[in-house]
Write a structure and sequence with these properties.
There is one protein chain. With about 70 residues, the chain is mainly α. The chain has one domain. The chain contains three helices and no strands. It has helices at about 10, 40-50, 60-70. The longest helix has 13 residues, at about 60-70.
C-alpha cells in the first residue's frame, strides 16, 4: 500500500519511525495497520491473503487467525 499523501504516522511519531506491534498479545490491540484500516485479526489475515496472493482456504485463514490470537 502506498503512503497516503497526508503526513504519515511515522512523521508524527516521536522517533520519526513506524512502530511495528509485536505479535504477542496483538489480539488485544485493535485496530490494525498503521491507519487502523483492519478492525479484527480476521480482516488482517484476509487482507494479507488477498494482497499477497496466498490462496488460503477459509479453514486456513481461520486457523491462522486463531494462532495469532493464541500468541
Amino acid at each position: 500500500m502506498a503512503e497516503p499523501e497526508a503526513t504519515s504516522y511515522a512523521a508524527r511519531s516521536a522517533t520519526g519511525l513506524y512502530r511495528t506491534t509485536p505479535l504477542r498479545g496483538a489480539w488485544q490491540h485493535p485496530p490494525y495497520f498503521h491507519d487502523g484500516s483492519a478492525a479484527t485479526l480476521e480482516e488482517v489475515v484476509a487482507i494479507y491473503d488477498r494482497r499477497q496472493g496466498l490462496g488460503l482456504t477459509s479453514g486456513e485463514r481461520s486457523d491462522l487467525t486463531e494462532y495469532l490470537k493464541s500468541l
